[in-house]
Known about the structure:
This protein is α/β, with parallel strands linked by helices. It has helices at residues 3-13, 21-33, 36-43, 61-74, 98-108, 141-154, 172-187, 200-209, and strands at 51-55, 90-95, 113-116, 127-133, 155-166, 212-218, 227-234.
Amino acid sequence: MHPAVRALLKTAARPYLAAGLYPYFFARGKLGYDPVYLSLLRRGGIADGARILDLGCGQGLLAAVLIAARRQYEAGAWPMGWPAPPSRTQLYGIELQERPANWARIALAGGASVQTGDLRHAVLPDADAVFILDVLHYLEPEAQQRVLEQVAHALRAGGTLFMRVADIAAGLRFGFTRVADRFSAIMRGQRVPPHHHRSLADWTAVLHSFGFAVVAEPMSAGTPFVNVLLTARAGSRPGRP
């Protein structure tokens, strides 16, 4: 791993020491093995001043990475060839569980607003980018539809939804992904709710029905999972700026 990338991950994880050893080591492990965070930084595409919503934000790792990225960039410790990370962003997260939400508030220290709430009933503010990473399968199919409809209305014209899902059509590797997800929830002391996965084709069709243009790419490199990142661009719609 490039020294600048290693320093970035350490910078993002370090604030979680204030919340306790478990959130700190979870952050170190998650940021170190999950490819999605570094991929989002390498690709760029989040504008300066963007209003960012992280739905099902957990302990706020996405916000921690974006904040750390800006600090590293301004300090001149940034991987060569990577686009500049966004600055002056407004970060807003919603998390169902109070404990990880509180860890996020402690670690982020005002760098993001994290609210406790159920996505099924959340009213979303306007946004330029929305992230839903490994979350929607915890909701019933009808609730998934409602959340995505809310996102479609919250995104400003040209805004982007970044959504990671596991492809139920991927056979045995999907089974491993599901087991690992359940085990992770148990290790965090959370109950394991029923899962409601879809195939990649089904997720893409749902997003198309809300007017999104969708690009899919594998997002589980270096892991045995079958995660896919869907980048969904919102078109212009009446009444949206």
